[in-house]
Write a structure and sequence with these properties.
globular, 11 strands, glutathione-dependent formaldehyde- activating enzyme (gfa), eight-stranded mixed beta sheet, 14% helix, mainly beta
């Protein structure tokens, strides 16, 4: 998988929290839920699902956002940027793609919660779901993303 040009560096706006990604993303996703809209102050959150063992973070984060045990939203303790989410059932983290040093190549492969999508918003995702994808859909979606997903230039 040399076409991913790893490793990648990422950081918050103040650079107090540094992140390093050493594994290719499992999928790129745009989430249109109201929680993500409010957390980003935008129409959706754009994230890369990264295997947990391919993600490292240095610097102090604090939990914010929805404060759910199954979704821990990590923010920089200094500038309050939303950086990544963990705590899911699987061994992965959802990194906010805009934290990457170069996010110009990132395009969502799937979009979720389109029932809450704001009018006129276009994410460019190939596959859409009214809510979140059913669990049995993730494996085929990740296989398709591995073949077809956008890569760094």
């Amino acid at each position: 998988m040399t076409d991913w040009k790893l490793p990648w560096s990422a950081h918050c706006i103040c650079a107090h929290v540094q992140m390093r990604i050493t594994a290719p993303p499992m999928i790129a996703m745009a989430c249109h839920c109201r929680g993500c809209q409010r957390l980003t102050s935008g129409p959706y959150s754009l994230s890369l699902m990264i295997p947990a063992d391919g993600f490292a973070v240095e610097g102090e984060t604090e939990i914010g956002g929805l404060h759910r045990p199954d979704q821990r939203h990590h923010f920089c303790a200094h500038c309050k940027n939303w950086l990544y989410t963990d705590g899911f059932a699987g061994p992965f983290v959802n990194v906010r793609a805009t934290m990457l040093e170069d996010a110009s190549w990132v395009r969502p492969y799937i979009e979720s919660c389109i029932e809450q999508k704001l009018p006129g918003v276009v994410s460019g995702a190939k596959v859409s779901f009214e809510n979140f994808p059913p669990p049995d859909q993730y494996a085929p979606l990740m296989e398709a993303y591995a073949r077809e997903g956008a890569r760094p230039a």
